[in-house]
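2024-03-11 09:14:02 DEBUG pipeline.ingest accepted 1 chain
2024-03-11 09:14:02 DEBUG pipeline.ingest length=213
2024-03-11 09:14:03 DEBUG pipeline.predict start
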Amino acid sequence: MSSVAVIDYGMGNLHSIAKALQHADTSVNVQIVSDAEAIRRADRVVFPGVGAIRDCMHALNSRGLSEVIKDVANSKPFLGICLGMQALLTDSEENGLTACLDIFPGHVVHFAEGLTDNDGSLLKIPHMGWNKVTQKPHPLWNNIPQDSRFYFVHSYYAVPDNDQDTIATSQYPDEFTCGLAKDNIFAVQFHPEKSQTVGLLLLKNFLTWDGAC
């Protein structure tokens, strides 16, 4: 039986993503784990996250999980979600300037104040709710229609140094990166576990993905 490790570093409700993964493929063994060796033994790894990046990085570093994430991100299918995507970049503006894992060169920045939509109405920060996602070709988008809507909750977004790392974009109101991918790593700003049918399809695609682009 294929195994999936959902990384537990003491932040967020991990049961929702674990339940969604299990629902996407009942034949997979989904485990919420904080033990480094258990994470390394899993066939696939999911790195979710909510909250503040400084607290996230402190938790990862204090538990010895930063190096574990770097190791498994180089060796097996790996999915980052929300804060779990942001933590993969070089640093974040949040909490001053927070050093992150530097797996994707680039930065995490705050949405500008005073953003307005096409009608001139002020856009709220955080960006919260359903929004269209424009895809670039990748196996994790299999059977998911272009410009499908996914569920977002965030005030910061990724700005990768390499445009080729961007695998998906959305708009609020300008275009921003909402998905990153290279080699066996795929990461998204939105929450697939809260995105109904298309979210479950993405998770199902991840659970059968061999890590090749």
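2024-03-11 09:14:41 DEBUG pipeline.report The domain at 3-208 is CATH 3.40.50.880 (Rossmann fold).
2024-03-11 09:14:41 DEBUG pipeline.predict end
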